[in-house]
Backbone:
């Protein structure tokens, strides 16, 4: 059981480039989400999905797109990378809504640097 | 606005002692709280949770206390071990009207020395 798998683990981008962070889970979880973690700050929600075909914005969605074509995958796209998007990104999943007591499982993180 | 914060950014304890990590929350409507542990270079890992209809919950070597009167949450780790060294986050569900999002605190670093 792989859990939540994120790729790549490390990436350096030039300003203006686009890229996709991949996230896959093999637990048949309906709820998936992306967070970013910056020094001295807690995890902040970027986008989330409550099921295939359904996505919604979190706290800091600007500059990012997501899609959920399958239950397993929830890619995060950076449209035009900016230095402010330098961060550690975490994908997470849970069986159902996390605020109702369902444990969230996090991936190992993706370290992104935009130069 | 809503916020979840921690009183101490770094806590240093001696191996074998008990650790107490504190967290304040501002949304009195929040009814579900979680503690996460994050080791260096890894993703957050669930430790323990508690609902607002409880004021105490125990796990293996960990206890979470909830004081709704002062909107305070704490994590107690008994007989702290070197493997407990990590950053600990509290999170709340931002109120029962919006249970699809969690708000995380900024984290407390726990350092365990021999």
Residues:
């Amino acid at each position: 059981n792989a859990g939540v798998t994120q790729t790549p683990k490390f990436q350096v981008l030039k300003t203006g480039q686009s890229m996709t962070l991949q996230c896959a889970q093999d637990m048949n979880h309906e709820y998936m989400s992306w967070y970013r973690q910056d020094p001295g700050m807690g995890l902040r929600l970027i986008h989330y999905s409550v099921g295939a075909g359904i996505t919604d914005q979190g706290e800091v969605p600007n500059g990012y797109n997501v899609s959920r074509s399958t239950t397993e995958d929830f890619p995060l796209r950076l449209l035009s990378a900016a230095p402010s998007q330098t961060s550690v990104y975490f994908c997470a999943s849970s069986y159902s809504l996390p605020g109702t007591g369902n444990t969230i499982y996090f991936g190992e993180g993706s370290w992104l640097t935009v130069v | 606005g809503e916020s979840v914060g921690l009183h101490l950014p770094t806590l240093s304890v001696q191996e074998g002692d008990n650790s107490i990590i504190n967290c304040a929350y501002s949304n009195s409507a929040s009814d579900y709280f979680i503690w996460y542990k994050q080791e260096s270079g890894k993703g957050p890992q669930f430790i323990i949770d508690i609902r607002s209809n409880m004021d105490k919950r125990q796990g293996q070597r960990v206890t979470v206390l909830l004081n709704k009167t002062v909107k305070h949450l704490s994590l107690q780790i008994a007989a702290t071990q070197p493997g407990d060294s990590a950053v600990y986050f509290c999170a709340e569900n931002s109120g029962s009207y919006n249970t699809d999002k969690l708000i995380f605190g900024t984290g407390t670093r726990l350092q365990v020395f021999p």
Notes: Chain A has a mean pLDDT of 92. Chain A touches chain B at residues 4, 31, 35, 40-45, 48, 50, 56, 58-59, 90, 92, 97-101, 103-109 (CB under 8 Å). The radius of gyration of chain A is 13 Å. DSSP finds no helices and eleven strands in chain A.
